[in-house]
Amino acid sequence: MIRELSALIARNRAGSCEVVPSVCSTQTDVLIASLLLARERQALILVEATSNQVNQFGGYTGMTPGDFASRLVALAQRLSVDTTQVVLGGDHLGPQVWRHESAAVAMRAAREMVRAYVRAGFRKIHLDCSEACADDPRPLPPALSAERAAQLAAECEAALPDPQGLAYVIGTEVPRPGGALGDESVLRPTRPQDALEVIELHREAFGRFAPAAWARVVALVVQPGVEFSPQHVVHYDPTAVGPLEDALGGQPQMCFEAHSTDYQRPGALAAIAAKHFAILKVGPGLTDAYRSALYRLDGLPSGAFGQTFGGELAQTLEQLMLSDDRHWREHYRGSDLERARLRHFSYADRIRYYWPQPAAEQAVAALYARSNAANWPPYVLRDLFAPSVLERADGLGAVAGAGRPQALVLAAIQEALLPYFRTHCA
């Protein structure tokens, strides 16, 4: 699997503009849709979990790395997806989950976490030690960040009898996971000299702590000038990006990795790929497509016209978010009305934290049951879904073992992900 990833990166470096989509989500329908699209396209796909989603203590999903890996393999097998097409990745692996502790405590937990990831079958490891711990200087010196990343690489190497199948991604948290740009912020793409400095600091640190691993560092996370905030998307501007590719001149095995490419225009993805971004990450944009499709079904009449079920799913999610506001209260500002809108429709998609809750899962199942019973004909559904989604859903039901409503939701997710499989140079 890593061999195929390295080959794709080499082709991108040679000018093919190929990319591998990196799906960062634990939501079941998003994973099903992504795996099936990879099967359809006969293409490689990365499926990644972040350190706050999945860790040795369960993360906010309640899953350990072993739990997530087993679940994904079981899904792939059920869907007849060739598991050699799927690379498991760990994203933002470092001490940040425990950054409110001392560096010694946080790094001890991070070491345990990366060992758990690689032993569970995760093979593409993004090492991110960019955030300061409780007793660290602020801002954290880049050399110290690189040193900690190299120390974690050494832990990964020691965790397997043969670590040759591991691939590493380095680079600071630019941008922060999940979208963190404030509406007033000015986004500056990474300068080539800054990217080169990060590479050199990590090369030196790896030489001290994990020398054999340096040849398997396949990507550097840099900022191409894309981001999203709760209310805005910063779209890619090729004129604002310098000759970033110059920083990779001495590292033929490496590409760039772009985070927060959610909601970018399809044409922008190919332009980003041309700058040797061979790994494009997407997550909230897919769970937002999931929510949007569910909400469209949620607004349909349940029987005769005039008798509606009035958005029962949305009401359930609203109650969940109001009863436990920890996942959104620091992210959304404004009037009560504005925050209500953001809770459901924000680009930041903080609602994704609530889908795994039993009440939300039950509400989705009930929506599917109501929609199945209503048996809406195509001439009604065409007002809700694009023709391409309706056509795609026709073939998904049998493949996914899903009823028509779930097939529509899966098709909507795939439509959001499909541009990541279509990048090519002009």
Written description of the protein model:
The protein has an eight-stranded parallel barrel with strand order 1-2-3-4-5-6-9-10, surrounded by eight helices. It has a two-stranded antiparallel ribbon with strand order 7-8. The protein has helices at 2-13, 28-41, 65-78, 103-119, 142-159, 192-209, 266-273, 284-298, 312-323, 336-345, 358-374, 378-381, 387-400, 404-417; strands at residues 20-24, 45-50, 86-93, 124-127, 167-170, 217-221, 227-228, 233-234, 255-258, 277-282. The protein is globular. Helix 5 (142-159) crosses helix 6, helix 8 (284-298) packs antiparallel against helix 14 and helix 9 packs antiparallel against helix 11. The protein is α/β, with parallel strands linked by helices. Residues 174-184 and 302-310 have low confidence and may be disordered. The chain folds into two domains: 2-282, TIM Barrel (Alpha-Beta Barrel), CATH 3.20.20.70; 288-385, GI Alpha 1, domain 2-like (Orthogonal Bundle), CATH 1.10.400.
